Each structure stands twice: as C-alpha cells, then as structure tokens.
Amino acid sequence: MMGHRTLVRMGLAAIFAASLALPAWAETWVIAPGEGSPQDKLDRAVDGDVVRFEAGEHRGPIRITRKVTVEGEKGAILVGPGTGSVVTVSAPGAVVRGLTIRGSGRDLEKMDAGVFVEKPAAGAVVEGNRIEGNLYGIYLHGAENSMARGNTIIGIEEGRLNEAGNGISVWNATGAKVVDNSVQYGRDGIFVITSKRNVFSGNRFRDLRFAIHYMYTDDSEVTDNVSVNNAVGFALMFSSRLKISGNVSDGDRDHGFLFNYANGSQITGNTVMGRLQPAERWTAAGTRGKDDKEHGLPATDAAEVAPGADARPGPTKCVFIYNANQNRFRDNWFEGCEIGIHFTAGSERNEMVGNAFIRNRNQVKYVSTRYLDWSKDGRGNYWSDNPAFDLNGDGLGDSAYRPNDLVDKVLWTAPQAKVLMNSPAVQVIRWAQAQFPALLPGGVVDSRPLMAPPARPKAVAEGGRP
To answer: Residue 58 CA to chain centroid, in angstroms?
Structure first.
C-alpha cells in the first residue's frame, strides 16, 4: 500500500497539473477613439481576451489572429481605408460583435468585405453588427461551422447591380449558419456556393436581386426567411436534399421561388404573395430585364406580363420549376401572381399536394402531351377558380380540375392570339372541350381538388415588412 506521504505528493501533483490546465483570467483591452492603431492591442491580446472599442470612430483595418472577442460599445464605429476588408478573421472561435463597420474596398476579385472570415477561422461568430456601404457585408470563406447572426447589413445602393457584392457570401463553409440577419441593397442577400449542411433561417431581405441565391450546396435548410421587393425571392439551383419551409416572398418581381436542377427536396409551408406593382419596377436600372437570361433559364415571356402599361402583378411566377426532380411541394400558399406555377424542362416525379393556388391570373403553365395528376392518397390542392361542387360533403371536388385547356396552349405557343380571347370561336372551343373531355390536351390534372384552402402557413402582417 502507498504511504501517507506518497498520497500527499500525488494529490499535490494532481492539483498543480489541474491548475496548469485552467485558463488565465481573461483581460479586457479598451480602445479609445483616436488612441492609435487598434491592431497594436489586438496583437497583444491572447486567447480568451476581450478587445472593446469605446463609442466613437476608430480607424481600421484590423486582423484577428487569436481567439478573442472584439466588441463595440454602443456608438463604436470602425472605418476602413477604402481598400481591402475592414475586419479579417483568421482565428478559430473568434467573435466580432456590436460594431458599426464601414469603408471596405470595391474589388470584387479580392472579395473586399466589411467582415471577411478566412478558412482557418472555424467556429467564428459575427453577430449584432451594423455593416454599412461595404462591397460584401460578411464573407464566410471556407470557415466551417462559422456563424453570422443578428447583423444589419446595408449594401451598395448606387451604381450597377452586378458591380455590387452580396450581403452575406458563403463559400465551402460546411456547417455554417446565417440566422436572423437583415439585408438591404447590394446584389444578393445570401449567396452560397459549393457548401453543405448549412442553415439559413430567420433572415429578412429587401431591394436586392435575389434574396437567397443557392448553388451546389446539399443537405441544408432554408427556413423562416422573408423576402420583400426583390427581383427574385429564393433561387435554389444545382442542389439536393434541401429543407425549404416557412419562407415568405412578398411582392418580389420575377419569381417567388425558382428551382433549377434542385432535386430530392422538401418544400413545405411557404408563402408567395403577389402585389400590383408599377411599371418602372420592371425596367429598374441594374436589375435583370425581361429579355435577359439568368443561369441559362429562358427569358421571361413578354406575353405573360403585359396586362397593362401602368402596373401588373409581381411576381411574374409564384414558382418556376426548371428541370428539378423528385421534390415534394406540400401545404404552400401561392397567391396573386401572373402564373401560379410554371412547370417545364423535363421535371420529373415532383409531388404537389395540399397547396393553395389563389387568384393567380394563370394557375399553371405546363405545355406537354403527358398528363400529371397533382393529387396523392385522395388529396389534391385548392384552386380558387375551380367551380366544382361537393355533393357528398367530403371536402373534395366531385370532378377533376384542369387548370389549362386548348386555348391556353394556343396562347402560350402563339401569344398574338390573345386578341381573340373574347371571340365566339374561342367560346365554342371551350364549350366543346367541356362536352367532350377527350379534346383536352395533356397537362396537369388534379383529380381530388380541395374545396377549401388549407390554413395559410405564414401570413405577412401589414406593417411587418423588414
């Protein structure tokens, strides 16, 4: 057995070793306005320290190379020299919070940003900042499990849109999260490419090209975001196994949701609200016009969007599905668009159940000789223009709903025929189709249409826009 002295020595050794493992007391470094270069105190700080900027204007740029918290008192402003990034983070676990950040460069190739988080900075957090007038707001460049949370980002308003950066860019940052931010002006609210297992949730976007622009990013979620008055709400491209739920597109211009090569995803409980918009929105400088193309998608057809010279509903399409396969659209609300859903380019095995199509000028655009039944397990969708009866009271229409007929097909293939819409000949064709259903073309059929709309998944309250 061990002697008493041996036990005492072992105990003292254990206590000494434990004391070495404990971190030293964190030090707070306070930087006053005009004190000198903030970088001096940043370079002297060690892991766990806090570097606090007092209220007032401070000169950047700064680089964070240790696991420290850089924070600003209320009114603390960090201004860059107009070149490069204002704040560069390269330390894992570093935190940047509570600052107003201005003055990045304007070099798109160098990715000048208000806050640039480099690849080594895994787990870094950028939160609660106001980031104004920078080329990019926040750039998460390869930093795994990093976080951009609760920031207000005001991008570049003047100049050409394609010369502005994004509010938040994410590149190859596995596990990164972008939550509860507000983004206005610039190019895209969030642009993500070549990443995976990301979360984009609770963000609000307005006055941008795309609210969320999503490419080559799998196994991720886009939830509870709000897009207002952007050219496109949610553009989801070349990605698989996404969870898209609880999002709102309110008065966006071209598309509420755009799916291009997006496969195997769950799209549930989203809302698109169309609104009558003035003609100048469609020709605003720097935004994509109706004759342009984006990512190889077909240009917007002028015949789809010309009900009047002064105003028309926006979005042009609540949903545009282009070569997207095996997706499940359930319990979404699509209202007030030129086209409720445009379905094209070989999209296969997509499920449409429990959705509400309300007051869209054309509920569905789908040109094909094939039939698609948009119902499953005895339940279809709600169509506000469906005149069906429900004599047995089961909540389903007694006859199938067909959103398109021969006349629609003619109008899509020969838009000039629109002048004949009210002619006797068109009325005879539609009467004949009603009497002889075999005359109807292929396309979408809802064999179990709902008689009442499901509950709206997420309404946009008046005055609740970002």
So the answer is: 33
